[in-house]
Amino acid sequence: MTVAVTSYVLLAIALFCIGLFGVLTRRNALMFLMSVELMLNAANVNLIAFSSYHGNLTGQVFALFTMALAAAEVAVGLGIILVLYRNFRDVDVTVPSAMRW
C-alpha cells in the first residue's frame, strides 16, 4: 500500500501554515522557535516524499542536513532566549526594542 505524494504535500502545507501562523502571531520566544521547527519539518516532509517518489536518496540526504541545521538553530536560539531572559526577565520578543551595547 503506497501513499500518494499529494498526501505528503498536503501534510507539509498544513505543517508549514501552522508554523507560519505561530511565527506571525506568537510573542513568546519559545513558541517562536517551535513554529520555526514546524516549518523546517514541513520542508523535510517534502524532501523525503519527493525523494522516495523519484527513487533516489538526494532528498533524504538534504533532510538530514536540514535536521542538523535545525539542531544548530535551536542551540543558538536557546542561547538568545537565555540572554533575553537574563536582561529583561521576560521571553517576550517584543520587549527589547533596540540592540544596545
TrEMBL record:
Q: How does it sit in the membrane?
A: Multi-pass membrane protein
Q: What class of enzyme is it?
A: oxidoreductase
Which locations, inside or outside the cell, does it occupy? Answer: Membrane
Coarsely, its chief localization is membrane
Pfam entry (one): Oxidored_q2
TM helices/strands, residue ranges: 6-24, 31-50, 62-85
Biological process per Gene Ontology, one example term: ATP synthesis coupled electron transport
Give Gene Ontology CC terms: NADH dehydrogenase complex
Q: Which InterPro entries match?
A: NADH_UbQ_OxRdtase_chain4L/K, NUOK/Mnh_C1-like
* Protein name as it appears in the record: NADH-quinone oxidoreductase subunit NuoK
Annotated EC? 1.6.5.11
Give the family from UniProt: Belongs to the complex I subunit 4L family.
**What organism is this sequence from?**
Natronosalvus rutilus
